[in-house]
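Narrative progress, year one. The postdoctoral researcher (J.K.) led the effort to move from monomer predictions toward full complexes, under supervision of the PI. The following entry was the first complex the group processed end to end, covering 346 residues in total.
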Amino acid sequence: MDSVDIKMISSINLDIVIVGAGASGVGIGILLRKMQLESFCILEKNTVGESFSRWPLEMQMISPSFTGNFFGMPDLNAVTPETSPAYSFQTEHPTGKQYAIYLKDIADYYNLPVVRNVTVESLKKEGEGYLVKTQNDTLIKAKFVIWAAGEFQYPNDNPFSGADNCIHNSKVKSWMDFKDEKYFIIGAYESGIDAAYQLAKNGKKVVIIDANDPLSNIQSDSSYYIITTENGEKFTSFTKPFLATGFKTSLNIVDEFFDFEDGVIQLTDNDESTKSKGIFLVGPQVRHGKVIFCFIYKFRQRFAVVAQEIVKRLGENEKTKEILDEYKLNNFYLEDLSCCEDECTC
Ligand SMILES: Cc1cc2nc3c(=O)[nH]c(=O)nc-3n(C[C@H](O)[C@H](O)[C@H](O)COP(=O)(O)OP(=O)(O)OC[C@H]3O[C@@H](n4cnc5c(N)ncnc54)[C@H](O)[C@@H]3O)c2cc1C
């Protein structure tokens, strides 16, 4: 499906608006569908799974996919208990392109009301709910907003002076496009290591530079780049260095609706904003103390916590308990956060 026109939304007065049709938006959208909620839509800037379809061609999921669903151990990369990218693509590590197809297929199967090519620009409090303003000035009124706009399309591409001389890894279409002998990569987390692996596999020499604090003072002329680290070490790169400095967050668009303490978002036990009743967050930005829900197999366990709270306020129906039980049975429901008190590495 993936093709509802904004003019076709029969009412612009809805119970729920979900912003973003990535892993989070599609996952929670399907859960709302299963719970037989009718009055909602998913507003999507581009198309379903857009962030995944923008991954460099060679990039694959790190979390392994395996179809253990029938034994109560759903595929780690699934966003619903009964689906499995491993089953669909016969692979343990789906590429971004494959994962985008997986999301499109399941959004289609569940007939999700995705409205494509609509960018949400801002929210405004209106009575008990919110007015969601889009780029074409359409205003949609919603009792609840679920923020699922992710991070990938908000790269951290200016972390130090001179960073504009680099290429952020999210802008790379294929690592095969780089033909020189040697490359520098700044950042040694998952994106940086993936970049290094792909370049090395293609016969390139790679230097990875990483520090806990932002690097500073890259100077360059037109022929080379000098990367100076905090402790004064200098590296000369004859190719544009790659930035693998991670991502910011789409929350910047709506940060006035959330409380932050030391930069950490404050959410209730149901992942609702502590500041603005009715706005929920789903996806990798969800945090509770040391517990960070940075991967799909982690954040998918909060979809049902959010849906349960919204349905409680809208009015439960005969499907509510059945679907919640299905999610609980399949380890798609995590309320007790003591699981990750000591360490929650992401
Ligand atoms: C190198 C790398 C490897 C990774 N490997 C794994 C892995 O192995 N396993 C794992 O679980 N996770 C992995 N991740 C993380 C995973 O990709 C994210 O956690 C996941 O994409 C988050 O899903 P999301 O739906 O919240 O965000 P996204 O997938 O980014 O989806 C957000 C959607 O919102 C839309 N959108 C954005 N802004 C707006 C707006 N203003 N209005 C309307 N729509 C908007 C976007 O177009 C997009 O479709 C990896 C990430 C990277 C960078």
